[in-house]
Amino acid sequence: MTERLEDIAIKMVADGKGLLAADESTGTIKKRFDSINLESTETARRDYREMLFRSDDAMKKYISGVILYEETLFQRAADGTPFVDIIKAAGSLPGIKVDIGAKPMAFHPHEFITEGLDGLYERLRKYHEAGARFAKWRGVITIGEQRPSWGSIKANSQSLARYAALCQQADIVPIVEPEVLMDGEPGTHDIDRCAEVTQWVLQTVFADLFDARVNLEGMILKPNMIIDGKKARKASVEEVAEKTVKVLKATVPSAVPGIAFLSGGQSSEEATAHLSAMNSGYDLPWSLTYSYGRALQDTALKTWGGKQENVAAGQRAFTHRAAMNSLAAKGNWKQ
Ligand code: 13P
Predict the structure, then answer these.
(1) Which ligand 1 atom lies nearest to the CA of residue 295?
(2) 159-173 pLDDT, tens digit each
(3) pLDDT(69) > 80
(4) Given a cut of 70, is residue 264 above it in pLDDT?
(5) Which one, of 152, 239, 125, lies nearest residue 191 by Cα?
(6) H-helix or E-strand spanning residue 174
(7) Ligand 1 binding pocket mutation candidate from 261, 291, 325 (most atoms within 8 A of CB)
(8) Of 210, 251, 294, 328, which has the most beta carbons under 10 Å away?
(9) Does ligand 1 come within 6 angstroms of the Cβ of 69?
């Protein structure tokens, strides 16, 4: 029997659990490995991800699902066990990044359009057969002088909506990720500009999801928080929480079961503190949790450093961050 999309979506944002974004493309994981002076071979990528997925305590208690890159969905651990089986054995759901990247958008300098719609339905059927129960597509919006343009918002929003409809038709829960970048260039915009742009983007995305006949109860939103540009002043934790909740309440229908934030270049602790502040003190219609990449992995990656003898320490580092974010998802994290 096929599981209902609504039930999978609820499981993805279950109380005190969230998603591990481990779907770095081959180019992005190379950048992460460069930071620890490790060559990005298929074996190194496997060893690193095996360390994370075999962190049993973290996976069972705090990680409802893992977003994988295509290579990993079909990859096996060193002992031959498929990664998908390891994730499922921990009670977690395998998911898959299905876009093929944000490419420069024609006639829109410094703006991007995400590609990957052609043949997507067939790929989704294949991923479902391999065990994926949810997917991710990331659209990227940049802030700058005269940016974002309406053209880039509309094009990215329509792609997200088309992707989401195709996922649901293939019995896969779509994570809809329109990311307003904090760490792009010039990165000097303030928190209010981020709020204004994010509100515009989310309003457009939900209008397009409606037009595409997407079932809101069977999807998860993955937005950025409302935050200053990376090179601007830093708003307080309370201000980030208040402005993020305000924008989300103005734009996200309560039929959406959950919102799982990206960390987007925030430090691990900032991402935890912001999430916890939103979950304590606000009356919210949706579950608010994490779908962090860097904020869950950074310390684990550095602790591991590519060395077999550091696997247990790397797993402890990952488990610690996951535990802190789990507390934050319940509004219980304290510095
Ligand atoms: P970060 O949390 O590192 O932003 O990654 C999340 C993600 O999936 C971006 O697409």
Answers:
(1) 2
(2) 999 999 999 999 999
(3) yes
(4) yes
(5) 239
(6) strand 173-180
(7) 291
(8) 328
(9) no
CA of 33 to the centre of ligand 1 (A): 16
- Pick the closest to residue 168 from 6, 332, 335 (CA basis): 6
Q: How far is Cα 24 from Cα 21, in angstroms, rounded to an integer?
A: 8
In this prediction, the answer to ipTM > 0.95 reads no
User: Rounded CA gap, 241 and 244, in Å?
Assistant: 5
Q: Is the CB of 138 under 6 A from ligand 1?
A: yes
pLDDT tens digits, residue range 184-208?
889 999 999 999 999 999 999 999 9
∠ at Cα 103 (97, 108), nearest 5°? Answer: 140
Q: What is the pLDDT of residue 185?
A: 85
* pLDDT given for residue 335 in this prediction: 83
Residue pair 175/222 in contact by the 8 Å Cβ criterion: yes
Long-range contacts of 238-247 (CB under 8 A, 24+ apart): 238/277, 239/191, 240/191, 240/274, 240/277, 241/274, 241/277, 241/278, 241/281, 241/282, 243/191, 243/192, 243/195, 244/274, 244/278, 245/278, 245/282, 245/284, 246/195, 247/195, 247/198, 247/199, 247/202
Q: Which two tokens stand for residue 183?
A: 């760490």
pLDDT tens per residue across span 215-254: 999 999 999 999 999 999 999 999 999 999 999 999 999 9
Q: What pLDDT sits at residue 2?
A: 64
34 Cβ contact partners less than 8 Å away, ≥ 6 residues apart: 40
Distance CA 291, CA 260 (A): 5
